[in-house]
Amino acid sequence: MVRNTYFQSIEAFKDKQVIKVLTGIRRCGKSVLMEQFMQSLLERGVSERQITYIRLDDLDNELLLEYHNLYAFIKSALLEDRMNYVFIDEVQLCKDFQKPVETLFNCKNVDLYLTGSNADLLSGELATLLSGRYVTIDMLPFSFCEYLECIKENNFPAQTTEENYYDYVKFGSMPFTVQLKKNTESAYQYLNGVYNTIIVKDIARRHQIKDVAVLEAVIKFMFQNCGNFCTSKKISDTLTSSGRKTSQPTVENYMHFLEECFLVYRVERYDVRGKELLKNISKYYIADTGLRNMLLGYRNIDMGHILENQIFLELRRQHFTVYTGRNLDAEIDFVAKNQTSLFYIQVAETVKDEETLKRELAAFKNIPDSYPRILITMDRNLNSDFNGIRNINALDFLTGNEKLVF
After folding, report:
1. Rounded distance, CA 18 to CA 262, Å?
2. Beta carbons of 4 and 153 less than 8 angstroms apart
3. Cβ count near 368 (within 10 Å)
4. Which residue among 107, 163, 282, 292 is least packed, with the fewest CB closer than 10 Å?
5. Which helix (H) or strand (E) is 152 found in, with range?
6. What residues does the AAA domain cover (predicted)?
């Protein structure tokens, strides 16, 4: 399945002297997107000799993990009289990859595409060398819309949108797990492989972590507390009290490593009255709920936080910058900003209970501006408006039938 939003993002920069960098968690579809783009080049008359594709996580390319060898291999394949399209998959596996990348960038007949599973891919020296000369395309696993499209293409038995949603959050949104739909054992076996690759290759090996058990304990804590405020001190105190002694700086490093590999996303706190970020505490959301269920077991008792997690990811897909809000003593789930607007958003599984509805709406009280207030729930047949606060059904939002409008 072609993921048109991401495909068009790459297409917009084709043949432009700018490096295209695809980033995102492992197995979210970066390599497939790259292969689809290469196929589209061939269909438009580009010859196979003009395309160089290297997967650095392939054992056959182990020698290319040394940057001199990588550059020599690519250089030998370039045609002098034509545009060359160079694709390097999981480029961060090559130490000092920025050196051949900079040289290739300066070749006028090279159109360069990279993928990476680490958020620090363009930090440090590479960012300095290539400042203003690259674009990043951040990929996530399937949106709910993409998931529905994929199960339709795979001719799965028809279900209601709500039934599909609960499968979506149970098995997760990694593209391959869709093919394993309803086969819990196979899906979680696959996700366990993805998880172990991230833990071993992307974190433990990269950062030379010897006690992986502590790292996994941190992951489990953060998965259990997705959508809650979370600090390194709270985690270290909890682990120490349970008999796994660890220091706060160690936990802080591990939390950063999880962000690096896109396993979790940190959401900073925003004071809606002071219009400033509060640096002392953040919430964390996870890239794929299937990984959470594989690790902790599927529990349908925490669907409120799971829904909040899905809304957060959808807001990112829609290119919002997302914060969690503080309004005096009240907490607002999301403050979503883009270049033209800002939205205050509360998320709840249901507000059919009157006290719950009052609590959710109270968070919006006395906000000192007129930006839209949105309540998102799984409920149907509720009022579409509560005194100026717009009510949106979550499934309508996730399927694109309801949009945030300023």
Report:
1. 24
2. no
3. 9
4. 163
5. helix 144-153
6. 19-148
Which of 149, 155, 190, 153 has its CA nearest to residue 168? Answer: 149
Domains of the chain plus CATH, in order, are: 4-138 (3.40.50.300), 144-269+288-297 (no CATH)
Q: Say which residues have a Cβ less than 8 Å from residue 351's Cβ, sequence separation at least 6.
A: 357, 360, 375, 377, 379, 382
Burial class (CB in 10 A: 0-12, 13-18, 19+), 318: middle
Q: What's the whole-model pTM score? A: 0.94
Q: What is the pLDDT of residues 152-208, one digit of tens each?
A: 988 888 899 999 999 999 999 999 998 887 788 999 999 999 999 999 989 999 899
CA distances from 138 to 4, 6, 21, 207, 317 (A): 14, 9, 8, 23, 9
Within 10 angstroms of residue 196's Cβ, the number of other Cβ atoms is 12
| Residue 252 · residue 218 · CB < 8 Å | no
Q: Look at the alpha carbons of 114, 263, 401, 319 in this order and tell me if their dihedral is positive or negative.
A: negative
Rounded-to-integer distance, Cα 340 and Cα 313, Å: 20
- The rounded distance, in Å, linking the Cα atoms of 25 and 119 is 9
From CA 239, how far away is CA 231, in angstroms rounded? 13
Tell me the pLDDT tens digit for each residue of 114-127.
999 988 776 665 66
**What is the DSSP secondary-structure string of 189-212?**
HHHHHHHHHIIIIIIIIHHT-S-H
What is the CB neighbour count within 10 angstroms for residue 204? 18
